[in-house]
Known about the structure:
Layout lengths: L3 H7 L25 H8 L14 H14 L3 E5 L2 H10 L7 E5 L4 H13 L3 E5 L5 H6 L5 E7 L11 H10 L4 E4 L4 H4 L9 E5 L13 E5 L13 H4 L10 H4 L1 H18 L5 H12 L1 H21 L3 E5 L9 H7 L7 E6 L2 H11 L4 E2 L9 E3 L11 H6 L6 E5 L5 H13 L2
Parallel strand pairs: 2-3, 2-4, 4-5, 5-6, 10-11
Antiparallel strand pairs: 1-7, 6-7, 8-9, 9-12, 11-12
The chain binds pyridoxal-5'-phosphate.
Pyridoxal-5'-phosphate binds next to helix 4 and helix 5.
Amino acid sequence: xxxxxxxxxxxxxxxxxxxxxxxxxxxxxxxxxxxxxxxxxxxxxxxxxxxxxxxxxxxxxxxxxxxxxxxxxxxxxxxxxxxxxxxxxxxxxxxxxxxxxxxxxxxxxxxxxxxxxxxxxxxxxxxxxxxxxxxxxxxxxxxxxxxxxxxxxxxxxxxxxxxxxxxxxxxxxxxxxxxxxxxxxxxxxxxxxxxxxxxxxxxxxxxxxxxxxxxxxxxxxxxxxxxxxxxxxxxxxxxxxxxxxxxxxxxxxxxxxxxxxxxxxxxxxxxxxxxxxxxxxxxxxxxxxxxxxxxxxxxxxxxxxxxxxxxxxxxxxxxxxxxxxxxxxxxxxxxxxxxxxxxxxxxxxxxxxxxxxxxxxxxxxxxxxxxxxxxxxxxxxxxxxxxxxxxxxxxxxxxxxxxxxxxxxxxxxxxxxxxxxxxxx
Length: 425
Ligand SMILES: *Cc1c(COP(=O)(O)O)cnc(C)c1O
């Protein structure tokens, strides 16, 4: 079987004799059939094929197949954004009246989706620390719990999750473990190998990698036995009247039930499809992902080491630094490196961090992360500027915190830019 670097370049599409070498962009909303019977079979999910790009498109499916192979799953789909991927992954199995256990250290947009928007839909979330013990995690479950959710490397907290412990505990309670693998990418971590059931991505970050297109993905490991917990998952284990009484878990098995239901119901009803053009860009990003991740991590490591010895910096978070809280866990789950995002504190607090940011020349101020170009954010003065120091502390952000996303430039140039800006404080 091919290794991850080869999968980045080649998986998902194998042209036949005389066919295009690069994946074709099927820029078509609809597909033509000879008879109504042919089309009817698609609507009944009796045959696989395409009829309308709001649900499925061949270009998207080629790219989803590549991601599926890279993560080691059995089925996958692309979505219009990472937000749509996480929403679909959870909403596919949790209904009004259900409950989900989620890590508290997750992307702010996901936290909002869960704690505010999905709460309005009648789904309750209990947030647990990413560093909780198994007993603490056990205590968060309720009879109506349907899933556990976490991030491999939390954005922006940079916590590294104990994936095995979270997956085992979820399974002991008869529910799947869903993990957002955006920051690590399947190049640096494949959560399915550690027991995760459903993997999600914001492909907007490293996978696209060039700040060109917003997108998301969901990959199913194909191992969770829905039928063994049929009482918890009626949506997968009882007939779907909107599809002529199909029962997903029996018709498509462990390997296909989750993604088929997600496509047939959620994509049909919400239409959060990625455009085939964006899927094409995503595939270009994937072709060099393994080369870029290596450089992102090398640059992240060198920059973290530089910052650690600087007398203008009070603290540095980077799981590749010996002595970092997550160093040992990162050695287990991320032996080839985690990501290029480093967070640190500038001595002198909010004002010093502001002066530092203003003085950067090469590193741009952006809310984005995980891009080929280095970028930097001072949350206390940007995304969280309406908060005072006490309010910041409550969401785990200190006034001096700077989040730096190391790109793939020459690392000496990055360090020189940091140094001149630190010297201006
Ligand atoms: C950015 C991000 C998301 C949301 O993705 P979008 O593509 O912006 O919708 C979800 N999870 C993580 C970890 C992210 O970094």
